[in-house]
Specification:
This protein has 8 helices and 11 strands. The chain is α/β, with parallel strands linked by helices. Helix 1 runs parallel beside helix 7 and helix 2 packs parallel to helix 3.
């Protein structure tokens, strides 16, 4: 019996707004993997929406350990472990324990160190959580920070981001912990009108870039979309540069499609009609 690749997705779920598990589940499923959610928090809407007295943020830390214990009883194994938005600093300790329980020699561990954007941490990311995210990222085979998260991981001032290609490559190499992990840095722009990602590929020991046309809008959740496509490609056996190129192209196409439809940016990109482009090729 041929088993579909199985991925543990340690993420939150937001009732409204395309991000985290509402993106991760359909993307990884379309790419041929079985996605098993280990839910970190339940939100009424993602954190880019203005807070309200009716906003729901339910920290599910207490359920994570029990879920992992049940999975261990069932003898479940994973081809990849993928973490994103966390509900509390204590969850980092629980994820470390999850690695001990389920990580095999060939298990791909991807950490999307979700902490903030545009130079500011998200309102639910406490200083303690941000400080400890580096501990979790240090255990990853691949990390996918944006510029804000890269600056936090490196202890750099966001106001002093790299100014050119050579400096970006330097940051990528520093983030790789001397070549110990792959790094994909999102939101990189090396020329006017283009945006994409820079990467350090641990397997090849080199840096590179993938670019697409920059669209005139910002959509929450595109980081989750990007990381999910990248991981789906990696689990299918594609090399990191090919996975990065696919993710950059897919996100750009989804943004372009959503702009053409004119839906509110806060709702995220309408990726659903585009999922066919990610289906495994026969």
């Amino acid at each position: 019996m041929e088993q579909a690749p199985r991925i543990a997705a340690i993420q939150d779920i937001s009732g409204f707004g395309r991000c985290s598990l509402t993106v991760v589940l359909p993307v990884l499923s379309a790419m041929g993997s079985q996605c098993c959610p280990l839910i970190t928090a339940s939100l009424s809407a993602h954190t880019a929406f203005p807070p309200s007295e009716h906003s729901v943020f339910l920290d599910l830390t207490g359920q994570m350990e029990r879920t992992a214990a049940h999975w261990q009883e069932l003898g479940i194994t994973f081809d990849a472990i993928y973490s994103g938005f966390l509900g509390s600093a204590r969850q980092i300790e629980l994820i470390g324990r999850f690695y001990e329980q389920f990580r095999r020699e060939d298990t791909v561990v991807l950490v999307d160190p979700v902490m903030g954007d545009n130079g500011k941490p998200y309102r639910t990311c406490t200083p303690q959580l941000c400080a400890r995210m580096g501990e979790l990222a240090a255990q990853a085979d691949c990390i996918t920070p944006n510029w804000t998260e890269a600056a936090l991981l490196l202890g750099e001032d966001y106001a002093n981001l790299p100014a050119g290609e050579a400096e970006v490559r330097s940051w990528l190499e520093r983030l790789s912990l001397k070549g110990k992990r792959s790094v994909v840095l999102t939101g990189v722009s090396l020329a006017e009108g283009q945006v994409g990602a820079g990467y350090f590929d641990r397997a090849a020991g080199r840096t590179g870039f993938a670019m697409a046309r920059q669209e005139p809008a910002h959509f929450p959740g595109t980081g989750d979309l990007f990381a999910s496509v990248l991981l789906g490609a990696m689990v299918r056996g594609e090399a990191l540069p090919e996975g990065v190129a696919l993710a950059v192209d897919f996100v750009q196409r989804c943004v372009d499609h959503t702009l053409a439809l004119g839906t509110p940016p806060l709702e995220g990109v309408q990726f659903e009609p585009m999922l066919g482009a990610l289906l495994p090729q026969e």
